[in-house]
Amino acid sequence: MSRLWLSGYRSYELNVFGDQDDKLKVIKFALTNYLKAQIEDGMDWLITGGQLGIEQWAAEVGLELKQTYPELKVAMMLPYGEFGGRWNENNQDKLQTLLARVDFHAPVSKQPYENPQQLKNYQEFMVTHTDAATLVYDPDNPGKPSYDYDLIKTFSENHPYPLTLIDFDWLQESANEYAEKQNNGFNFE
């Protein structure tokens, strides 16, 4: 059994503001290709969070891949109870729809948000309950994932815990491949 924690930038950090954004199509294309390879290498649990952006998109891609790889399980772990409760109604609905579709979901802390320690506890839970991590993150362009990146780097100094970075160069290569396939008549919709 192999459990992968996948996280990364929030949607606003990537300037993606809608489901039809071309950047989102490229990101999902990159995630799909990456996750297919991970599944074929033995990953059977994709574990992500509920943040708007890479985490929710990873869950969506994982759920789509279950059609081809029914053995894949998708879990969403939330840092605290009532997570997303202050979001606008549309974003709350997206989260609730995903939570209803994944194989497992739970908050690490059942309490509503009280303090930053809950976020640290969430990170600690994720690194100790997964076998590897992948971040859609580029250290040259810091953002929210820098907290996870720093924790994973520190954790991996004393534990066998591989980290893969899907950085902006990787995403650009994926964009080129996506464009080439579109020009050759492949339809990704």
TrEMBL record:
The lineage of its organism: Bacteria, Bacillati, Bacillota, Bacilli, Lactobacillales. This is UPF0398 protein OOJ94_09180. NCBIfam families: PRK13660.1. It holds the Pfam family YpsA. PANTHER family: UPF0398 PROTEIN SPR0331 (PTHR38440:SF1), UPF0398 PROTEIN YPSA (PTHR38440). Belongs to the UPF0398 family. HAMAP family: UPF0398. InterPro entries: YspA. It comes from Lactiplantibacillus pentosus (Lactobacillus pentosus).
